[in-house]
Request: fold
Amino acid sequence: MSELMQTIYVVDDDEAMRDSMTWLLEGEGYRVACFDSAEAFLKAWRNDMCGCLVLDVRMPEMSGLELQEKLDSLGSQLPVIFVTGHGDVPMAVGALQRGACDFIEKPFHNEDLLSRIVRALALDNELAARRQRDGAISSRLEQLTQREREVMDLVVAGKLNKQIADELNISMKTVEAHRARVMEKMNVRTLAELVKSVMTVN
Reply:
């Protein structure tokens, strides 16, 4: 995923805070999109958004924590950095336990925020690469016939060719032919690579 496509989404009900963050982040060459409420961001949210979310904990109506929970339920993988007031630290720690990427206390130094954003964008790239890899493995699995899938599952479970032949009531030669096709379709060279691929998406 290209860093150029990444956007920093700032969700904060304080207009002065949104303006200062936009000025800071655009000055560093980042693409920024601001929202004055959690609800406004939810309306704009798409599953293919990439970048990170800089989210104020305390907002009227829907809080930052409630937005995080809602995004989790939607399957969002956008890294979240919470911006918290001094009294909100225990709340922010709880948010980290629920999957937030980081939090920063107000008032903060610009360098602190920027270093957290660099980490969040690197995590976003890593997650995007993982999704791409998992998608490729899933589409390879879909190319297997039912019998190839059965053979592969038994191979991955550590069964020997003879045990697989007995279990599926087919010849050893047929097991070997299916194994070879599984390796070819899954684009792996060794049994260890095959096991790793299957475990990645299971």
User: Anything to note?
Assistant: The two ends are 24 Å apart (CA to CA). Residues 9 and 127 are 17 Å apart (CA to CA). The domain at 3-132 is CATH 3.40.50.2300 (Rossmann fold). Residues 110-142 form the longest helix (33 residues).
